[in-house]
Design goal:
Shape: elongated
Largest sheet: none
Distance between the termini: 145 Å
Number of helices: 44
Helix content: over 70%
């Protein structure tokens, strides 16, 4: 009997194994197991694992609509909007009546700025399921995206009337009421959301943020601390409380709070990164690097830690270390957009903007909405001298990512360079909206108003800059600029000194102080101010640059200027301004060969700086070394293909030496586009057209060149009149030609082509 029982047990087990094996091979059983596993991961907040399991389910059954929908929800949690949209679209192909999927995809389309497509889904929902409060919430979102905030409020109120107990609706209503300037109503809505959802972190933080926005800081702090008690394992309320401390000027308190919080998040990446991110956000990159060095040692497999560490190493110019870590990321994931952006940044800092353009164009091709990639692509183009493409990329960056302050600042800088005060004001206003507690935007907007002589408006912004950051030098520097523009020199000196008291290393403040003395013809005081600040900050290349400048321009002390500028170059071999001026001083002292050597050495240290090649070309021109001049200008154009000055000078040298006229024409047109207000560019283009026998067009350009020269209040230029005279002569306008030739000799009797001018006059008189 014992043998029989054993045999029976074996048979039973064999049958069971066969049955279980059959179940495991059954696709329906397997897909449901994957689905259930995905659900468990989703409920635990492990969304990446959920994606894998739901993905396994749809691989088994591509028509498994519920799995496609849950896969979309997992992607939404991971903020992977593209894959979420794809999975929701597939869900709706399989289940057209899945109204929740319609709601979700409508909200995604609204966030993706595709209102027309979103409207199609919302219209269907309003027709098929008009009593679902989420439908009206989606309709409110669409109206808000279209800036119809009052209409959005009405839709949200409709959602609340259908389901008064949904905390989400009250929260969204409060946010909309803030947009229509109904703060009291918004407060009531936020409090209702908290009442209905006491454990809902979104409601808790919205109420705290409301108090913060109204400068009710004690209540904001109390509410943030309450949110922390509601969910101690959630790092977000702690991060928000730290930001509140920063806003209140309590940076040290924020730092201490985050240090105390860090041990509570040993396994939460967002939590243990908060302290390092705080250092980065407050501009303390040294502490940020130290913190992230420790984090990377403790969490080498955390991809976000590694990426943030790479970014910090780039900012500290530790490019070899950054490149090594970044290459490790790209080896595992060659298409990682973040790592490709970092590679582009490294290439820019290595002086390889052409390579950076290729790298970053790959990113924007993959993700056209990557504002960061567009921003750095603009930086690369700007480094190449391609201002038009740089501006286009920065404009795209702020369009797809309006909160990207760096892109707004780049546009502001570009506007300042091109003296476009309207564009500067626009960019500055955007910066203020993004960073209202920073002095930067107010200072930039004041620059626009100072240049437009709207001094009262400028003063308002400067006072705001001082009030939001009283320990910063920025507002005081700009106040000095305001007084200087109004020739109120005493007030200017006082403001610049206040700026230097706050930041002894500020070259802008010292430069302003020196300018105020120079404007009063007090060069000795300017020199004394520079020397005084150098004594406080002896390692400042910029301070020696300023000293050399005032010695050169105001004191005409060439040996002293050369010594100061040499010191500036020794302290910082990349100080292009000091190196340029050093060569100019050497030329003024009659040492052209020394200037050539200065610029040649400067090029070795600054191979991507076109100005040194251009200056070398001009020096070679002065020595009538046309071949070397052409090579220098061509080198400048290799570095900066659209550089207008290099294009202009190369075109002129080519004409002087029988070069290709058509190539010279192309170069001259580039110069004219890039320097529309330059008399030299107009003259060069006119001279090319003269060589091509287009005399009437040449006359127009020579006349324009003379007008531009007068507008710039420059001394009369004999060459402009000489060229105009020649063009008149070729057009059979002898009387006008004679007037121009006579003007040449009156301007400069020893003009280099005076013999030809006299010859032309003799022919006209005969």
């Amino acid at each position: 009997m014992r043998h029989f029982s054993a045999l029976r047990l074996v048979l039973i087990l064999a049958v069971a194994a066969t049955f279980l094996s059959g179940c495991n091979r059954d696709p329906n059983v397997r897909k449901h197991k994957y689905f259930e596993s995905g659900q468990r991961y989703f409920e635990k907040g492990k969304y990446r694992e959920a994606v894998i399991q739901f993905g396994n389910a749809v691989q088994i059954d591509s028509r498994y609509a519920e799995a496609h929908y849950q896969l979309a929800q997992s992607y939404i949690k991971l903020q992977d909007w593209l894959h979420a949209y794809q999975e929701l679209s597939r869900t709706l192909e399989l289940q057209p009546e899945n109204f929740q999927a319609h709601i979700d995809i409508a909200n995604l389309l609204i966030a993706g700025r595709e209102p027309k497509k979103a409207q199609e889904h919302i219209d269907l929902l309003l027709q098929k399921d008009p009593d679902d409060p989420q439908v009206h919430e989606a309709a409110a979102n669409l109206l808000s995206a279209e800036a119809d905030f009052h209409g959005a409020v009405l839709e949200m109120q409709k959602a609340i009337s259908l389901a008064p107990g949904r905390w989400e609706s009250h929260l969204n209503l409060g946010l909309l009421q803030m947009r229509v300037n109904q703060p009291d109503s918004a407060e009531a809505s936020f409090k209702k959301a908290v009442e209905l959802g006491p454990s809902a972190m979104g409601a808790q933080l919205a109420l705290a943020s409301y108090y913060q926005s109204r400068s009710r800081f004690p209540q904001a702090e109390q509410q943030f601390r309450h949110a922390i008690s509601v969910d101690p394992k959630n790092p977000e309320p702690r991060a928000q409380l730290a930001r509140l401390f920063i806003l209140e000027g309590k940076a040290s308190e924020a730092e201490q709070f985050l240090k105390q919080s860090k041990p509570d998040f040993a396994d939460d990446s967002v939590g243990y990164r908060m302290l390092g991110d705080f250092y980065f956000a407050t501009g303390d990159t040294d502490k940020a690097v130290t913190e992230y060095t420790s984090l990377y040692a403790d969490h080498p497999r955390d991809p976000q830690v590694k990426k943030n560490y790479i970014q910090l190493l780039i900012l500290k110019n530790r490019l070899d270390e950054a490149q090594k870590l970044n290459d490790e990321v790209l080896k595992v994931t060659p298409g990682d957009d973040d790592a490709l952006v970092y590679r582009g940044q490294i290439q820019i800092r290595q002086g390889r903007p052409g390579d950076a353009v290729q790298t970053l164009q790959t990113v924007v091709k993959n993700d056209a909405d990557s504002g960061v990639a567009h921003y750095h692509l603009g930086v690369a183009f700007d480094q190449m001298g391609d201002v038009a493409h740089a501006q286009s990329e920065w404009q795209t960056a702020v369009r797809v990512h309006p909160e990207l302050v760096e892109a707004q600042s780049a546009l502001a800088t570009l506007a300042l360079r091109s003296h476009d005060m309207n564009a500067l004001e626009q960019a500055a206003t955007q910066i203020i909206a993004l960073k209202p507690t920073s002095p930067d935007g107010y200072a930039l907007r004041s620059v626009a108003n100072i240049n437009r002589k709207q001094f009262a408006r400028a003063q308002e912004d400067i006072q705001k800059a001082v009030s939001v950051a009283p320990e910063s030098s920025i507002g005081y520097k700009q106040m000095g600029n305001l007084w200087l523009a109004q020739q109120k020199y005493g007030e200017a000196e006082k403001s610049y000194q206040q700026a230097l008291d706050r930041d002894p290393s500020s070259s802008d403040a010292l430069g302003g102080l020196i300018n105020s003395y120079v404007a009063q013809q007090q060069a000795d005081k300017a020199v004394a101010a520079a020397n005084s600040q150098i004594a406080k900050v002896p390692g400042s290349s910029q301070f020696y640059d300023l000293l050399g400048t005032v010695l050169f321009n105001s004191k005409k002390d060439l040996p002293g200027a050369e010594a100061a500028l040499n010191k500036a170059a020794q302290l910082d071999k990349n100080n292009a301004d000091a190196l340029v001026k050093l060569g100019q001083v050497q030329v003024a002292a009659g040492s052209v060969d020394a200037a050539v050597a200065t610029y040649q050495n400067a090029l070795k240290d600054n191979p991507r700086e076109p100005s040194f090649s251009i200056l070398l070309g001009e020096l070679y021109e002065s020595k009538h070394n046309w071949d070397q001049a052409m090579k220098a200008y061509q080198k400048a154009l290799e570095i900066s293909p659209e550089n207008p000055l290099a294009s202009n000078n190369l075109a002129y040298v080519m004409l002087q030496n029988g070069g290709n006229v058509d190539m010279a024409l192309s170069l001259a047109q580039t110069a004219r586009r890039g320097m529309p207000d330059s008399s030299s560019a107009a003259d060069t283009l006119g001279w090319v057209l003269y060589q091509k026998r287009a005399y009437r067009s040449a006359i127009d350009l020579f006349q324009e060149a003379i007008k531009l020269n007068e507008k710039a209040r420059s001394p009369e230029n004999a060459t402009l009149h000489y060229h105009l005279g020649l063009a008149y002569q070729k057009s059979d306008q002898g009387a006008l030609a004679r007037q121009q030739f006579e003007r040449v000799l009156k301007i400069n009797p020893n003009y280099s082509d005076a013999s030809d001018v006299k010859k032309q006059l003799a022919q006209l008189h005969s």
